[in-house]
Amino acid sequence: MSRDVVVPAGRQALYERNRYSPAIRSNGFLFVSGQVGSLPDGAPHADLEAQVSLAFSNLNAILAAAGCSFSDVVDVTLFMVDPEAIFERVWPVVMSHWGDAPYPTLTGVGVTWLYGFQFEIKVIARLPESSHPPAAE
């Protein structure tokens, strides 16, 4: 089984500092670490709706670096701090990035802490055939 790390342009230092991979390509799938609405320095965007939109922008940058788009996403997990209080504000922003049917599967999780963020999105995408890295010899 091969594992190939995918890092979007301009974010390498952030991932190295935090010691995790933004995404791993393996066996025809892309496993993307949870993405938050972080600014280039890693700090959270102060506005909730902007934070959600920025999380999608960060996610889409990783998907693009792997040769994918959100239409290749098959599974989504959303994490929200205090979802009862923020859901009505978050959901329209999520839907504006969601795309057309068929939709991915979805699991929503309420959490108490996200390192200063209020929203995080984690996905698994199916890699288009053209984006599979060559097998290691």
What does this structure look like?
The protein is α+β, with helices and mostly antiparallel strands and 137 residues long. The chain has a 6-stranded mixed sheet with strand order 1-2-3-6-4-5, with helices on one face. The chain is built from 3 helices and 6 strands. 30% of the residues lie in helices and 28% in strands. The chain has one domain: RutC-like (60s Ribosomal Protein L30, Chain: A, 2-Layer Sandwich). It holds the Pfam family Ribonuc_L-PSP. This is Enamine deaminase RidA (YjgF/YER057c/UK114 family). InterPro entries: RutC-like_sf, YjgF/YER057c/UK114, YjgH-like.
Quick structural gist:
This protein has helices spanning 12-18, 48-65, 83-98, and strands spanning 4-6, 23-26, 29-36, 73-81, 105-111, 119-126. By secondary structure, the protein is α+β, with helices and mostly antiparallel strands. Strands 1-2-3-6-4-5 form a six-stranded mixed sheet, with helices on one face.
Give the topology, please.
Elements: E1 4-6, H1 12-18, E2 23-26, E3 29-36, H2 48-65, E4 73-81, H3 83-98, E5 105-111, E6 119-126
Parallel strand pairs: 4-5
Antiparallel strand pairs: 1-2, 2-3, 3-6, 4-6
Strand count: 6
Percent of residues in beta strands? 25-35%
General shape: globular
Compute the average pLDDT.
90
Structural class: alpha+beta
Percent in helix: 25-40%
String of helices and strands: EHEEHEHEE
Identify low-pLDDT runs.
none
Return the domain count. 1
CATH topology: 60s Ribosomal Protein L30, Chain: A
| Separation, N- and C-terminal Cα atoms | 12 Å
Tell me the CATH architecture.
Answer: 2-Layer Sandwich
User: What is the tally of helical segments?
Assistant: 3
CATH class: Alpha Beta
CATH homologous superfamily name?
A: RutC-like
Q: In what order do the strands lie side by side in the largest sheet?
A: 1-2-3-6-4-5
Radius of gyration: 15 Å
Biggest β-sheet strands, sense, barrel: 6 strands, mixed
Pfam family, one: Ribonuc_L-PSP
Protein name: Enamine deaminase RidA (YjgF/YER057c/UK114 family)
InterPro entries: RutC-like_sf, YjgF/YER057c/UK114, YjgH-like
